[in-house]
Task: inverse folding
């Protein structure tokens, strides 16, 4: 999408109206990603619009203006949504359980109660931080795939690697996370 790339360049140059136009251009894509996030993590009391807006604000309080193209922007948006969800779940845990985080496996996530899903997302986030220290690209692939709902093709484009590399490293990252999340 050349128009997105042009708007991102204008945002980097400091044009405030370009941010508004950029949001309008990618809004539906961000809503699609957010709906996927909230569908998988329906323990969140956020709604799609809140998640999109919070992530967009987080992007422009941080590295969002440095996005080079559409794929890179969506990868950064996935990171921002992950951070918003983690902050949300941590706040809820602090209120409900005194902040105790339980370890869970990836396999138990879909069958878990709504309250336990928040704990699992936080446990996954913490494991992902450890993975990032070990292999940043593996962590980025998990983040884009799990938190961003991106396809292997989109991830390959965002990370400037082949689809085959993404596929191989996705399998590797899942295996590493499964070991890390074992109770």
Result:
């Amino acid at each position: 999408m050349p128009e997105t790339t042009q708007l991102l360049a204008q945002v980097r140059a400091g044009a405030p109206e370009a941010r508004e136009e950029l949001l309008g251009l990618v809004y539906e894509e961000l809503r699609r990603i957010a709906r996927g996030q909230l569908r998988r993590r329906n323990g969140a009391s956020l709604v799609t619009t809140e998640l999109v807006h919070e992530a967009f604000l987080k992007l422009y309080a941080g590295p969002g203006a440095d996005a080079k193209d559409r794929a890179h922007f969506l990868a950064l948006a996935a990171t921002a949504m992950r951070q918003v969800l983690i902050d949300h779940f941590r706040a809820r845990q602090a209120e409900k359980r005194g902040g105790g985080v339980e370890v869970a496996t990836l396999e138990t996530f879909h069958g878990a109660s709504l309250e336990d899903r928040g704990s699992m997302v936080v446990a996954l986030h913490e494991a992902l931080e450890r993975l990032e220290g070990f292999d940043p690209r593996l962590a980025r692939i998990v983040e884009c795939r799990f938190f961003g709902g991106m396809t292997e093709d989109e991830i390959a484009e965002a990370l400037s690697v082949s689809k085959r590399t993404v596929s191989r490293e996705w399998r590797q990252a899942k295996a590493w996370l499964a070991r890390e999340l074992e109770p």
User: Anything to note?
Assistant: The radius of gyration is 17 Å. The first helix runs from residue 2 to 12. DSSP finds eight helices and no strands in the chain. The CA atoms of residues 59 and 80 lie 6 Å apart.
